[in-house]
Every structure is written in C-alpha cells, then in structure tokens.
Amino acid sequence: MARKSKPSTAASRQRDRALAALKAESERQLEELIRRRLALPLEKRMNFLRRRLPGGGSAL
C-alpha cells in the first residue's frame, strides 16, 4: 500500500497560520457575544430560567 507524502513545510505553516487565525476570530466572536448578553437587562438575560405555568404566566 502506497503512503501519501507529507505536506510541504510551507503548506503546513500556511495551514497552521490559517487555523490560528480562525481560532482567534472564533474566540473574539465568543467574547463579543458574552459582552452583548451581559449588556442586556437581567430579566432578558436570564429568560431561559423561566417556566411556563399551566394557568398562564411564568415563574422562575
């Protein structure tokens, strides 16, 4: 069975740079999302904790 040759070092370095840039952008966007959500008022930020009641309305 023939083995594939290893990628050239220049291509490997370019791929590593692209992956590092993608990771940095992903982390930046996550921090931005967290900041946006923290800027919301508490009742909107914690809306996922609310439970709907059978007779209407909601409670924590």
Beta content comes to: 5-15%
| SS element count, helices | 2
User: In which order are the strands of the major sheet placed?
Assistant: 1-2
Give the end-to-end Cα distance, rounded to a whole number of Å: 62 Å
DSSP strand count: 2
Low-confidence spans: none
Average pLDDT value?
84
Category by helix and strand content: mainly alpha
Percent helix, as a range, is 55-70%
Which labels suit this protein?
60 residues, mainly alpha, elongated
What are the SSEs and their pairings?
Layout: H1 9-39, H2 42-45, E1 51-52, E2 58-59
Description:
The protein has 60 residues and is mostly helical. It has helices at 9-39, 42-45, and strands at 51-52, 58-59. Strand 1 (51-52) and strand 2 (58-59) form a beta hairpin. The longest helix has 31 residues, at 9-39.
In a few lines, what is going on in this structure?
This protein is mainly alpha-helical.
